[in-house]
Design brief:
With 195 residues, the protein is an alpha/beta fold. It contains seven helices and six strands. 32% of the residues lie in helices and 18% in strands. GO terms for molecular function: phosphatase activity.
């Protein structure tokens, strides 16, 4: 679908820049970490590929790492949207998957039960609101958020179960683009690093 001026309805996804915990593979949701120096430098490189795009709306997760990435990419005035927060890891906050597997060998954020955290259904409900809002706006929506939430958001855009987000690997400070092809939701670009 395109707007009257020919700008397609698209959802652009940017994962925040590197933090100490993203570097070490620790699950980070509510812990409000700063970007590393490398994370800041790479996030600043997002300016060039994003600057020429006409965005109808720009949103960011409430977490500092996403808001700082938006600022460094040239979107300091991004609207904060709580629905873009990272999947809540509850008791597994700050742990790596191997550490979690010591006590819960079969656990996966995609299909497991996370004590004190969000369920896949809860994550789907809030990300479905993001999808609906993006589809209601003519033109491009740009969001700055997190690894698991953006992977789940891609799944929901495509009409897939949240658990299918596991197939979308996503690095820090990358750009992905979702759109439609003749009414069918598609992935236009995925996990593109700035140059």
């Amino acid at each position: 679908m395109s707007s009257a001026d020919g700008v397609p309805t698209e959802l652009w996804l940017v994962r925040h820049g590197e933090t100490e915990w993203s570097r070490t593979g620790q699950h980070t949701s509510v812990t409000d970490l700063e970007l590393t120096a490398d994370g800041e430098a790479i996030a600043a490189r997002l300016q060039h590929p994003l600057a020429d795009q006409p965005f109808a709306r720009v949103l960011a997760s409430p977490r500092r790492r996403a808001r700082r990435t938006a600022e460094l990419a040239g979107f300091a005035a991004a609207d904060v949207d709580d629905d873009l927060a990272e999947w809540a890891y509850g008791d597994y906050e700050g742990l790596t998957t191997p550490q979690i597997h010591e006590s819960d060998p079969a656990w996966s954020v995609w299909t497991g039960v996370t004590p004190g955290g969000e369920t896949a259904q809860q994550v789907a409900a809030r990300l479905d609101r993001v999808v609906a809002a993006a589809r209601d706006i003519e033109g491009r929506t740009l969001v700055f958020a997190h690894g698991h939430s953006l992977r789940a958001l891609a799944a929901r855009w495509l009409g897939l179960d949240v658990a299918q987000g596991r197939i979308f690997d996503l690095d820090t400070a990358t750009i992905s683009v979702l759109g439609d092809d003749r009414g069918i939701p598609v992935v236009r670009r995925w996990n593109v690093a700035p140059r």
